[in-house]
Amino acid sequence: MAISFELKAQVRQDKGKGASRRLRRAEQVPAILYGAGQDATPLLLSHHKVLVALQNEGFYTHILTLDIEGKQEKVILKSLQRHAYKPRILHMDFLRIRADEKLKMHVPLHFIDADKSPGVKEGGIVSHVMSDVEVSCLPADLPEFISVDLSQMALDQLLHLSELKLPNGVEIVALTHGHDLTVASIHEPRAEVEPVAVAAVPAEGAAATAESAAASVPATEQKAGDAKKEAKAPEAKKEPKK
Fold it and tell me: Where are the alpha helices (DSSP H) in the chain?
């Protein structure tokens, strides 16, 4: 069953940074709708409704319906601006679509059957080099995701974009430019070598130096002691002249 997404929107009258800040304080999200040869339309949406919709992965890749004061528009989410650390949506861009015009979208990759691959059975681990891919297709052919079958991958094998199975009418943008990028790989895990404590053995020269230094210490102390004794020795009494 196909999933559909619909959001209610209103035409935004106030413009500018100050107006956008006021809208955000009122739990509204400023947005813009453009494309299909029509003028751009500033909009506002419910922040709560937007947050709920964004929890579904399909919202980012599906054809959406914007109900703008009773008029419905078929759109895609083109860009999204989030707050740096708060769960807040700051701005959204929507693009109008036409049924006869191809669009470009980033579609998530779903990796399947990794546990069945010979490489994993031999102890290898899977590295996901890419998590999504940009595709070009008509709106009616836009997939929700692309499955990446790892069941036949061997150890030290790479899987490229050209090996992905695509739905009819869908092409990968990178391949049209001659870039057959790596999607995933299976490799042996790196063994962690624990450091072994080795007792330091001084070299012959170092041992000789150490012995001479140790021998020189008591000699120095002896000289210092002799000097103290000489300093403390009582002066000899002078005999009286006869």
Answer: 17-25, 47-54, 118-121, 173-176, 204-232
The strand pairing partners of 67, in sequence order, are 8, 72
Average pLDDT of the residues in 82-98: 93
Q: What is the pLDDT of residues 183-204, one digit of tens each?
A: 999 999 876 656 666 665 555 5
Number of H helices, E strands in the chain: 5, 13
On whether the CB atoms of residues 107 and 61 are closer than 8 A, the answer is yes
Q: Is the pLDDT of residue 151 over 90?
A: yes
Residues 6+ apart with CB under 8 A from 53: 5, 7, 59
Question: What pLDDT score does 57 carry?
Answer: 86
Length in residues, the chain: 242
List Cβ neighbours of 176 (8 Å cut-off, separation of 6 or more). Answer: 136
- Does the pTM exceed 0.70? no
Q: How far apart are CA 8 and CA 86, in angstroms?
A: 24
Other residues' Cβ atoms within 10 Å of the Cβ of residue 68:
17
3-state secondary structure of 45: strand
Please give the backbone phi and psi of residue 186, each rounded to the nearest 5 degrees, phi first: -125, 125
Angle at 147 between CA 143 and CA 151, to 5 degrees: 165
